[in-house]
Design the sequence.
């Protein structure tokens, strides 16, 4: 009965078969960078949605899967009540990375990225409460405050001016990136990227070469340009340092 119930729900993203007297259910999602989850589709959410509506499972299992589905259905923190946004960073993102089952217990990992709109202690309290209400518990592996350097910092302004001069784009502006880098471990650091004038080689069809996709790639010409620009920025910052 369980197999028939699942098989009836098979579609272009859900594949069901039997293997060694076991039912194997596979879901295909759409991967995106954790910092930029728009357009992604969580395969775990697809599975949880399937199992939460499967008549062949008992009611308790379906309820658990529904809760998992609810947690994975939104990547802006709403299921935990931590959704917020600010003018600099934009929306907080809360994305799922791994789903594991050990000794019959489900564990889910989440990556939360945020700007000045969020307070770590308040977020942790809301997450704990949300999970406790469902008889689950939370473990916080690492907590780091938002790393934001003032855009008026003389070194950042030097880098920006060097970029404008190199590219001829006088309207270029700095922006806050949600990607987590080693920059957060330094008192005054910012990201400048690895390619220039677009990171993907020309001629690729839509959906290919994107960040964190199976065929991720960058333009060699763009990378070499970025290296040259990076060296110019460092030289100009060195001049700035000598003038202070």
Sequence:
């Amino acid at each position: 009965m369980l197999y028939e119930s699942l098989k009836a729900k098979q579609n272009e993203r859900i594949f069901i078969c039997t293997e060694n007297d076991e039912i194997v259910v596979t879901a295909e999602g759409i991967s995106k960078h954790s910092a930029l989850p728009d357009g992604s589709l969580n395969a775990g959410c697809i599975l949880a949605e399937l199992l939460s509506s499967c008549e062949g499972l008992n009611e308790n299992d379906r309820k658990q899967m529904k809760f998992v589905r609810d947690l994975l259905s939104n990547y802006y923190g709403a299921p935990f009540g931590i959704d917020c946004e600010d003018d600099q960073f934009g929306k907080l993102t809360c994305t799922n990375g791994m789903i594991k089952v050990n000794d019959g217990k489900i564990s889910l990992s989440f990556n939360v990225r945020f700007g000045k709109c969020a307070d770590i202690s308040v977020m942790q309290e809301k997450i704990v409460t949300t999970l406790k209400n469902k008889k689950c518990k939370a473990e916080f592996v690492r907590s780091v405050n938002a790393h934001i350097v003032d855009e008026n910092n003389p070194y950042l302004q030097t880098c920006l001016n060097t970029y404008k001069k190199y590219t001829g784009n006088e309207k270029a502006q700095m922006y806050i990136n949600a990607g987590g880098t080693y920059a957060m471990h330094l008192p005054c650091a910012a990201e400048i990227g690895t390619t220039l004038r677009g990171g993907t080689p020309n001629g690729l069809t839509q959906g290919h070469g994107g960040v964190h996709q199976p065929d991720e790639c960058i333009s060699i010409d763009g990378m070499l340009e970025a290296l040259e620009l990076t060296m110019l920025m460092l030289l100009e910052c060195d001049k700035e340092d000598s003038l202070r």
In short: The chain has a mean pLDDT of 86. The chain has six helices and six strands. The beta strands are 14-19, 22-27, 85-86, 90-91, 93-102, 105-113.
